[in-house]
What we know:
By secondary structure, this protein is of the alpha/beta class. It has eleven helices and eleven strands. The longest helix is centred in the middle third of the chain and has 22 residues, at 139-160.
Amino acid sequence: MKTIGVITSGGDSPGMNAAIRAVVRSAIYHGLKVYGIERGYEGLINGDIQEMNVASVSDIIQRGGTILRTARSEDFMTSGGFQRAVDMLANFEIEGLVVIGGDGSLRGALKLSQEGVTIMGLPGTIDNDLGFTDFTIGFDTAVNTVLSSVGNIRDTSSSHGRSTVVEVMGRNCGDIALYAGLAGGAEYILIPEKEVDINALCRKIVQGKNRGKLHSIIIRAEGVEMDSNELASLISQRTGLETKVVVLGYTQRGGSPTARDRLLASKMGYRAVELLKADSASRAIGIRGIQVVDYNMVEAMAMKRSLNTELLELADILSI
Length: 320
Ligand code: F6P
């Protein structure tokens, strides 16, 4: 392996820059040439490719977003577009590609690996919805971003004696809601992995009010079937409490990555280059507990995410 590339694809996440930095500097340390591919697979198809050096990744470890930018590419999903991507990698003699992205991006990378390109997949998404890793790069930062907003909302909800439905991202995974809800002391957490029990939800709110709670915070993951406004009006109607909706949206995708995400990204980026240098086959890189691990790419993408039911039960108990 002499020449590698690094790309960020799909929804951006805080920590992607730390991962890019680790890949570029590890590659140069190991004597490899490294190209940065801009704007995800769209940029790959169009040849938006620049050689990187140690200075290319200066002063970015603390920055959210991705200096390589990202995009979602319809073209890459077509046979013509996909072939142009394969050809472009050959034009630059890129033998190994580090792909930092979520589920869709890594599945696209899997297809590239079947064309003879060695892929190292890093889990770059705030959603925490990949089965081969306990945590994804950006998840911890997103949870802390939600936590900061929930803290502000608690203040104003208490002042006005209100309920607030806080909608968070995560696509079809409830982990951002679950972790931020538990850490934020939310009264109720709604996740797509569990049916909405509106009776239990309203009962909990009324019981809290009856024992003197000044507010209630309900964290709703965006994948939950009942939408936030419908939920809020149902709560108002059934509890008599004024209920507001706050959609945190894209604030969860930005911000300076936490130490945890910077360390995760740095360790994973280094592991990716180590494996490429050793001429490994395509691998997906994750973390189990505190241990960085790597799996066969095909097996990794078949692994299912399991809901942390313990955390959900704990959140329910601690918010009585
Ligand atoms: O996958 C990350 C994510 O932020 C999801 O949580 C969210 O549903 C989606 O991306 C939004 O996609 P887009 O950035 O294309 O609007």
